[in-house]
Amino acid sequence: RRTEETESLASATEAQMLALQKREEAAAAREARNVKHEKSLLELQTELQIERDWIQERHRQVAVVEIDAKDHEQVFQRRLQEVIKREKSLVAAQERLSEEEERVAA
């Protein structure tokens, strides 16, 4: 009778040990998957930061180009105003010349 109880207890203990071992193996497998997922997540975060940096650099370059374009536009406008002013001067000089030629001819 005692042997049966001992064997039954040993069998139950062995079953509990096997169940515990299986739970530990499952936990280790979950931990390994978690580590793998964390590594993948870090890689993705790194890639994302590289993309963000690239985009920020492009925005900075666009801003510089826009500033240059505004500067060029201002220079162009100033030169255009100078041309318009000279054309008006030329027209006025031509009018004076025509008036002087008419007086000389008269």
Describe the structure.
By secondary structure, the chain is an all-alpha fold. It has one helix at residues 2-105. The radius of gyration is 45 Å and the shape is rod-shaped. The termini are far apart.
Proportion in helices = over 70%
Give the topology string: H per helix, E per strand.
H
Could you state the oligomeric state of the chains shown?
Answer: single chain
C-alpha-based Rg, rounded:
45 Å
Low-confidence stretches: none
Report the end-to-end length measured between terminal Cα atoms.
154 Å
Number of DSSP-assigned strands: 0
Which class best fits the helix and strand makeup?
Answer: mainly alpha
Strand content: under 5%
Q: Give the biggest beta sheet.
A: none
Write a compact overview of the structure shown.
Helix content is 98%, strand content 0%.
Features:
mainly alpha
Indicate the topology.
Layout (H helix, E strand, L loop, with lengths): L1 H104 L1
